[in-house]
Amino acid sequence: MEYLAKREYSYTELGRKLSKYAEASDDVPALLEDFKARGWLSDARFTEQIIQARQSKFGSAKIAHELREKGIADELVSNAIAQVKISEFDNACEVWRKKFKAPPATRDAWAKQARFLQGRGFGFEMIKKVLSAVASQAEND
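-> structure tokens emitted (141 positions)
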């Protein structure tokens, strides 16, 4: 109960945490199912929380990886990624703006900015779109 009072956990993540403290006679899966039935443990709620916390800083690839790592079902991950992709371009532009003040002037600068965005979990097509948009915006100014 103490873990759930602090933040949301996925079913798998909480199971791993509790199994460290469980004895052979303890039935951790039954306890987790009870929590789930009472509405105290929800993978959907956990997924929503991760999306809200991460989408302004990271791309869909990184968020999907984190959700899969936490044991979230593929169906929930697919739905989450579809939700993230709606505003991914705006989020990627904002992440770029916070880190870089000017569009890339050289090929090396372009590669550096692309690697940064890739490390944040944005796909190559999104990276090209963002860097093209900031370059064209700089030309118009």
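The longest helix spans residues 124-140.
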